[in-house]
């Protein structure tokens, strides 16, 4: 491949990682047949454990309490929080479901743990944000983790007053809001889920302290039908929202090309103090709800790149969240285990076999055969660099990249 660029190499030195986990996050369960199967979280944690990551040097495994109302109100209306509680309490009574607030719908069916499980996931993301931000008055010599991971989080569609797209509370936005409350002046949010990060974008639409960047399948073919390049932020924050909508069928080289043609320059210009990233695994070719064709190896490559960008542009402070992902055996556990390993400074060789005890657990829980290796066989991933290979006006992907650059780069003092 001419002008091909190799993926960044993982950093091998531990930077300090806070891994947020509470087994009760698996109570975020919309019921049988729903795509958001909590087994994906349990199988991820079992794979993380099988690789020894929770006890690796520099890694701290921690559980935070559920976010309380005062924390949830950083993003959500109290009336909505009350509605979530009421819907959960009366989950068997459809007449009590707050459908106008997205509760008790096909996407977000009512269940008894709706408030507590959602608040618990939010609590982990808020704690992750707190972990990487220097505490006021803390001794300067007290070691703090530079990175934090909550792969149960990334519920980026929830709005201040309603649930949306399998998301009840927007933990990603809550983590950002908490960082701002603690004194952060610039927070960058990069969303690589196949769906547009609409909730986070809307919540910080007019806030110049937050840059939201979302790479996603074009809204012409996928929920939530937002995320056009023309969505660039409110009147007080021009350029605070950046969207790169990708054509259906975009695969590894196109996905990586689009990311590297937009995200690094934007982060360099914005100079965030913290990077928050959302790692939805539903860009994968096997995901049943979308139409991109990305491999596990490309997903891992972007985790490595985001780790590197956090060190280059955010003093290493990085909060990494999960997100979508509905191929719950083949894809989600492996990519979020890679994400955790990358953040821990103990990257897993893609050619590694999956541990036998994990394969047995997969079969016990799902009666499915587990994948045998930590790769889709496409490592190392290469892509044509946008600056070096040039723009192809007949290529739909290049059209999308150039449209995003033309729309937003000048607002950051960059040449498109």
Broad shape: globular
Count of helical segments? 13
Largest sheet: 8 strands, parallel
Order of helices and strands: EEHEHHHEHEHEEHHEHEHHEHH
Sheet-strand content, in percent, reads 5-15%
Helix content: 25-40%
**Distance between the ends:** 25 Å
Rg result:
20 Å
- Overall number of strands: 10
Strand order of the largest sheet: 3-2-4-9-8-5-6-7
Mean pLDDT over all positions: 96
SS-based class = alpha/beta
* Unreliable runs: none
Question: What does this 3D model show about the protein?
Answer:
The protein has 416 residues and is α/β, with parallel strands linked by helices. It contains 13 helices and 10 strands. The protein has helices at residues 39-50, 69-72, 78-89, 114-132, 171-182, 198-203, 252-260, 263-270, 296-313, 332-343, 356-366, 386-389, 396-408; strands at 4-6, 17-20, 59-62, 147-150, 187-191, 210-217, 241-246, 274-278, 318-321, 382-384. It has an 8-stranded parallel sheet, with helices on both faces. Strand 5 (187-191), helix 6 and strand 6 form a beta-alpha-beta unit. The two termini are 25 Å apart. The mean pLDDT is 96.
